[in-house]
Amino acid sequence: MFHTILGFGGRMGRLEYFLISLVFGLFMTLLVVALFLGLAPHGLTPGNARASIGGSSLLIVLLLVVMPIYLWFSLAFLAKRLRDIGWNPLFVILGWIGAIMIDRFVAMTVPAMALGHGSGTLAGLLLNLFMYGSLLFWPSAPTGTEDWSGNSYPGGRPDPDPRLQRPREPKPAAQPAAALAPAPVQAPSGFGRRGL
Fold first, then answer.
1. Where does residue 18 rank: exposed (0-12), middle (13-18), buried (19+ CB within 10 A)?
2. Closest Cα partner for 155 from 70, 122, 165?
């Protein structure tokens, strides 16, 4: 059971991904709010509380514990959903992270292209919208169509090149009803099997 939850293998449908992401996101938001409220000195304004918590070593330790857990679950759910779509999770996740890093770099080096302070560009926003929209709305691929996942193939491994596939044998033509009638019974000869 824990392999299904903690592992990167398997598939996850749209509704399942949406519900798990919603519950996991709410849990992480409540955890961060609880950490913020628990560590903030009482009676301070929000700006002063943020400044006093920023240097707290306890918060840093808690974030070092919570962030890897959050990243593990997020990447595991993402890999399962991408596999369900029919995409290779390794290439898509690495490409998405690379595109986000390039987008942030462009936004830092060319501030005129940035949408706001500390955010990315319009191209990065559109890429993220496409990816999240795909994760939530892209239909599942048929089972057994991925050749990179190592799953078993019910009808044999699909061949991607149609020129290498064997031609299908034509179906036999329908025979007339007279040909399907039983043969007339012959009278046995008097000599049995050795008969003339």
1. middle
2. 165
**Mean pLDDT score across all residues of the chain:** 74
SS3 string, the chain, reads CHHHHHCCCCCCCHHHHHHHHHHHHHHHHHHHHHHHHHHCCCCCCHHHHHHHHHCCHHHHHHHHHHHHHHHHHHHHHHHHHHHHHCCCHHHHHHHHHHHHHHHHHHHHHCHHHECCCCCCEHHHHHHHHHHHHHHHHCCCCCCCCCCCCCCCCCCCCCCCCHHHCCCCCCCCCCCCHHHHCCCCCCCCCCCHHHCC
125-148 pLDDT, tens digit per residue, is 899 899 988 888 888 887 655 544
| Half-sphere exposure (Cβ direction) of 170: Cα atoms closer than 13 Å | 3
Q: What is the pLDDT of residues 5-33, one digit of tens each?
A: 677 888 888 888 889 889 888 988 888 77
Cα(8)–Cα(15) distance, integer angstroms: 18
- Going from N- to C-terminal start, the domains of the chain cover 2-140
The closest of 76, 80, 72, 86 to 10, measured between CA atoms, is: 80
Other beta carbons within 10 angstroms of residue 1's beta carbon come to 5
